[in-house]
Design goal:
- The protein has about 525 residues and is mainly α.
- The protein has a two-stranded antiparallel sheet. Strands 2-3 form a two-stranded antiparallel ribbon. A two-stranded antiparallel sheet has the order 5-6.
- β5 and β6 form a beta hairpin.
- The protein is globular and about 80 Å long.
Length: about 525
């Protein structure tokens, strides 16, 4: 109901009304609006995948499903909607069989709710209300948060006339899937007519198509579309960049030997020169630049969000009282001084920043003890969960490290096609802007920096993004103004924040599955 409609009702019949309690769903994703730069950097360095794309087989399976369903496209009455329905049935068989085998995919709750017949009749018909409900509620491979965007980005499937066409390069993998599926599923289950299926009908599918055991043909096809194609003259930007990221990783692993993921991230943060043993040197250098920026941006975002958590917790501890900015600033200042000797010995903002910068070589120092980005990220996670009173000192040291990294890239000329993440998206506090704001306060006492952080970087940014995104009726605001002070406007503070996964693990998983890398028994990665 619109506001003018409410006004009209009260004009016609003035008086009080008894109404129900206003209930709004709370939303807490990206409360300060910092996430998008991180995602931009991930898209720029590891395009075509996301944080769940760890297996090769879903790519080949969905290409097979569209190939198989399209075989019936010429039949009378076989509309596009029926082809889509057939594809979804094939995928449902696969999800159902894995649920039965206790190797469930994400979204298994819906599979068990509709398909698993152990609590019903022992059979399921792929038509009617239950089938429609399943399709509406399922989380399948083609979902936006699953493999769907990646399957299309790697060109396993390409849009064609409102449907999808499979890549010709994928045919060797499709033929393998066809042989395996046909060996265990009766033909009647694959035809367009909606079948009635029992648990025993689909049970064998998970056995012949384990999600984590791709065939040699699937590995070859995936490696071609994921990596090899990036070296062709006709390769697009994303293809070249994806290959450059793989080549950079392989060069690091050859140069330094087996590493865990934190060791790889540390090499990225330090922006060390890599002796390229193969690949495009220019693309690898550009990729290395962006991956260095990504590590710093991850630290900047998590440090800022951890301070928002600290402010929420501090306000919550006052049990509904509003607190002035000066009271919050004093608490943050005292906390940092009590735990950080560099901070305690500094008179001004500039003194502290100089101690952190310390005459070190940056960004190399971002991989060194005391200013190690990876260690600081872990320390922030720890303090959020175990010692929240210590957050200010760790957060400010982290922001000072990010500022030193950002300063080291001043004057950098970015090649065409390489994003300048230091300045991009000024409404989301890019690192260059943050560094300049810190430097502008260099001759001021340290509490002045805390006032800038708390009022502008946290509360100001939070209120802005809560308002910008408030059109969907969800409650995003956590901190509000009450009288002349601030108070928590939710019953409880946030649980804590984590750095958005940077896709490195899924990149290494996919790369290892297709033979670009090897995973040792001790969990370390090495070049294949």
């Amino acid at each position: 109901m619109k506001l003018d409609e409410l006004d009209g009702i009260f004009d016609r019949t003035p008086g009080f009304r008894v109404v129900g309690e206003l209930k709004l769903d709370e939303s807490g994703v990206d409360p300060i609006g910092l996430r998008q730069i991180n995602l931009d950097l991930m898209d720029a360095t590891v395009p075509g995948i996301n944080n769940v794309t760890q297996h090769i087989r879903p790519y080949a399976f969905m290409a097979w499903a569209w190939w198989r369903a399209s075989k019936y496209a010429g039949r009378a009455g076989m509309t596009p909607e029926k082809i889509v329905d057939l594809v979804e049935r094939y995928e449902a068989f696969y999800a159902w069989s894995n649920s039965i085998a206790r190797t469930p995919f994400r979204g298994d709750v819906t599979v068990r709710k509709y398909l698993n017949p152990e609590v019903a009749t022992g059979r399921f018909t792929f038509a009617g209300p239950d089938w429609d409900s399943y399709k509406n509620e399922k989380t399948g491979f083609m979902a936006p948060t699953e493999y769907g965007p990646s399957i299309k980005a790697l060109h396993f499937l390409k849009p064609e006339g409102g449907l999808f066409a499979w890549a010709l390069e994928a045919m060797p993998a499709i033929e393998v899937i066809e042989d395996l599926v046909s060996s265990v599923l009766p033909e009647r289950l694959l035809r367009p007519e909606p079948p009635t299926v029992t648990l025993d009908d689909v049970r064998p599918l998970a056995g012949v198509l384990p999600i984590d055991e791709p065939s040699a043909e699937e590995m070859d096809v995936f490696r071609h579309l994921f990596y090899d194609i990036g070296g062709l003259d006709k390769a697009g930007k994303d293809m070249r960049r994806r290959k450059a990221t793989a080549d950079l990783l392989r060069a690091i692993l050859v140069d330094e030997g087996p590493l865990d993921i934190d060791g790889i991230r540390r090499r990225f943060a330090g922006f060390d020169a890599v002796v390229a043993y193969e690949g495009d040197d220019t693309e690898m250098r550009n990729t290395s630049l962006l991956l260095c920026h990504l590590q710093a941006r991850q630290l900047q975002r998590l440090a800022t969000e951890s301070m928002m958590l600290w402010v929420e917790v501090f306000l919550s501890s006052k049990k509904g009282m509003s607190l002035s900015t000066d009271e919050i600033v004093a608490a943050a200042h005292n906390s940092a001084a009590a735990q950080d000797q560099d901070y305690a010995s500094s008179r001004t903002v500039g003194d502290y920043l100089a101690l952190i910068e310390g005459g070190r070589e940056w960004p190399t120092a971002a991989a060194e003890r005391g200013t190690d980005v990876v260690e600081l990220l872990e320390l922030i996670r720890h303090t959020q969960q175990k010692e929240r009173s210590l957050v200010p000192g760790v957060a400010l040291r982290s922001l000072a490290v990010v500022r030193a990294i950002a300063k080291s890239f001043e004057g950098t000329v970015y090649p065409d096609g390489v994003m300048n993440s230091m300045e991009k998206r000024p409404d989301r506090m890019p690192m260059g802007m943050m560094a300049r704001r810190m430097d502008a306060l260099a001759d001021r006492p340290l509490p002045v920096l805390w006032k800038e952080i708390i009022e502008s970087w946290i509360i100001g940014q939070h209120v802005h993004w809560s308002a910008v995104r408030g059109g969907d009726g969800k409650k995003r605001l956590r901190i509000g103004l009450e009288g002349d002070g601030w108070m928590l406007v939710r019953p409880k503070p946030s649980r804590g924040f984590g750095a958005t996964p940077d896709r490195l693990w899924t990149f290494l998983s996919l790369g290892s599955s297709c033979g670009l890398f090897k995973i040792r028994e001790d969990g370390l990665y090495e070049a294949a």
